Amino acid sequence: MSQNTIRLTMAQAVARFLTAQKTIIDGETLPIFGGVWAIFGHGNVAGLGEALHGVKDTLPTYRGQNEQSMAHAAIAYAKANFRRRFMVATTSIGPGALNMVTAAALAHVNRIPVLLLPGDVFANRLPDPVLQQVEDFGDGTVSANDCFRPVSRYFDRITRPEQIIPALRRAMQVLTDPAECGPVTLSLCQDTQAEAYDYPESFFAEKIWMPRRIMPDADEFAAAAAALKLARKPVIIAGGGVLYSEASVSLANFAEVHGVPVMETQAGKSSLPHGHALNMGSVGVTGTSASNVLAEDADLVLAVGTRLQDFTTGSWALFKNENLKIVGLNVQPFDAHKHNGLPLVGDARVGLEALDAALTGWQVDSAWTDKALKAKADWLKDADDARAASNVELPSDAQVIGAVQRGRSQALLVCASGGLPGELHKLWRADGPGSYHLDYGFSTMGYEIAGGLGVAIARPDEDVVIMVGDGSYLMMNSEIVSAVMMGVRLTIVVLDNGGYGCINRLQMATGGANFNNLFRDTYHMELPNVDFAAHAASMGAKAKKVASVNELESALSASEGAPGVHVFAIDTDPLITTEAGGHWWDVAVPEVSTRPSVNAAREAYEKALLAQRAG
Fold first, then answer.
1. Exposure of 212 by Cβ count < 10 A (0-12 exposed, 13-18 middle, 19+ buried)?
2. DSSP states of 169-201 as a string?
3. Is the peptide bond before 95 cis (omega within 30 degrees of 0)?
4. What is the 3-state secondary structure (H, E, C) of 511-527?
5. First to last CA, the chain
6. Could you give all domains of the chain from N- to C-terminal order, each with its CATH number?
7. Are 279 and 254 spatial neighbours (Cβ–Cβ below 8 Å)?
8. CA 311, 278, 330: angle at the middle one, nearest 5?
9. pLDDT category of residue 489 using cuts at 50, 70 and 90
10. Which of 213, 210, 71, 45 is nearest to 151 (CA)?
């Protein structure tokens, strides 16, 4: 049977295929790819660059300033869209491609879809070694792009133009699968990009991709429901899967009907509004006292859409009830089985609604719910004290957080690494789903500004506010230029504590000397005095150095709704953190040292290890 074909280069086929992939959100059919981030080089400019130019009216191409940060922007776009829409990032071979590997790992850890299209060496190998080619002395098939293999959900190297047909179809399956989604890397040999092939027209037919809602297995469901009915002190831990499943309403209904307290991971924060009576806030190492006091006593944890990583479980020392059971409601079996839990493999929304129906008439003893309500009331007082404005010369991160939230009460908050996520997890008051946007799965320095740009593209009507430390700002700030170029509305608050304050505090807590973290504790000929406002202004932002949290609050209020990129820098104290809440975290302390402070820290560490559960 013959079929109609169209002769295109492989790169042209990629571009055309991408424009034909659609989804439906709130009744509106939309392109599933929101655009392409590109830094062109000799490995992609002639092939894919020409192809993208041909579809620029339907698939926009954005010029990034750094390969890693533009991929961060693409990832943030997908996360802000609850994984319903996503983006592409393309680079040349060599350093351009390898710069995206960190971003690929971020997406892999956080289960976020992104399509990476790095250029590669010549498939015909005639020019070998081509410029920027990494040669393996013992394997002629290896290139630098093999580094993407362990941090991609699906990896393929395209050496013939017809190979792109099954590769792109497989890529879409992975990108849209709620259990398997993550980064997909299609490594495009640069000569193959330019080769033509007679592609079937059917390959470019419009296709609608909708999220799959996995129904729980009957036996697993029965076991989970039975465990819940027997629980006397249950809690729910809400992870990112609640947001990706759009299950916030179902979660709130389940908690209210059955009286079960809810606590949130970093990825799951904003699953319930901060003001919801049964939202205990953050849990674990960066948890509120309300969540952690309940977690310590809980006899059942319904873990919904979470990986249960060590910050959530307090390095598996938080839960102290010997009879603890975990029910893992998760689309990914790998996660549902964690910590010897009862797996309930399925979609978060479907699973919660089914459990609610199966548990009709069951409600937690009022004493447990009352304990939760009192614990939350006590925590809110502590949180208010930590966030309150102060006239101190160097405010704490918590005081800056208070000023930002008072100045921009409806902000969508973006952050990533360092000490800020711990304080924000406890203290930021998130209301709408997705109004709290952090990378803390990979805790990637440099994500903040680029991620904020991606969020702003995904949600142009939101007031996107980025909070970033000076160390992370210095590591990656160049997408300020992209935001200015694109006319994006963005607010950046830079907290300058003179170095890597978070790790300096950890160094001190483990008995170490103040060394190589704060600028003042490094080898230097002269201490830097970075003018972050002037630096941001040089890239086109409207920038200002503020002298106090009150001035910051006023500046944020005055600039609310204003167009363009606004940057406010403020000096902060590198040592102060919120004392209330929190939990021990397993960071191994040297067993042998000549320093008494390290030996003392080791002794405390060994005592803390006794609380860890083996499984």
1. exposed
2. HHHHHHHT-TTT-SEEEEEEEHHHHH-EEEEEG
3. no
4. CCCCCCCEHHHCCCCCC
5. 58
6. 5-208 (3.40.50.970), 218-378 (3.40.50.1220), 388-571 (3.40.50.970)
7. no
8. 50
9. very high
10. 71
Tokens of 298: 């809980």
Q: List pLDDT tens digits, range 176-211.
A: 999 999 999 999 999 999 999 999 999 999 999 999
Task: Tell me the Ramachandran region of residue 549: left when phi exceeds 0, alpha when psi lies from -120 to 50, beta otherwise.
Answer: alpha
Cβ contacts of 528 within 8 Å, gap of 6 or more: 519
| pLDDT tens readout for residues 249-291 | 999 999 999 999 999 999 999 999 999 999 999 999 999 999 9
Residue 238 and residue 433 in contact, taking contact as beta carbons nearer than 8 Å? no
Task: Tell me which amino acid residue 23 is.
Answer: T
Structure tokens at 374: 């009192």
Residue type, 74: A
Given a contact cutoff of 8 angstroms between Cβ atoms, the answer to whether 300 and 324 are in contact is: yes
Beta bridge mates, 342 = 327
φ/ψ of 282, rounded to 5, equals -70, 155
Phi-psi region of 160 (alpha: psi -120 to 50; beta: other; left: phi over 0): beta
- What is the tens place of the pLDDT at every residue in 439-463? 999 999 999 999 999 999 999 999 9
Please say whether the beta carbons of 116 and 184 come within 8 A: yes
What token pair was written down for 19? Answer: 């424009």
The residue type of 56 is K
Q: In what order do the strands lie in the sheet with 154-158?
A: 61-63, 33-38, 86-91, 114-120, 183-189, 154-158
CB neighbours of 105 closer than 8 A, spacing ≥ 6? 151, 442
What was the pLDDT predicted at 394?
A: 96
How far apart CA 559 and CA 572 sit, in angstroms, is 22
* Distance, CA of 183 to CA of 172 (rounded, Å): 11
Euclidean distance between CA atoms 350 and 146, whole angstroms: 38
pTM attached to this predicted model: 0.97
Q: How far is CA 167 from the centre of its chain?
A: 26
Q: Compute the chain's Rg from CA coordinates.
A: 25
> Which H or E run contains 262?
strand 262-264
3-state secondary structure of 133: coil
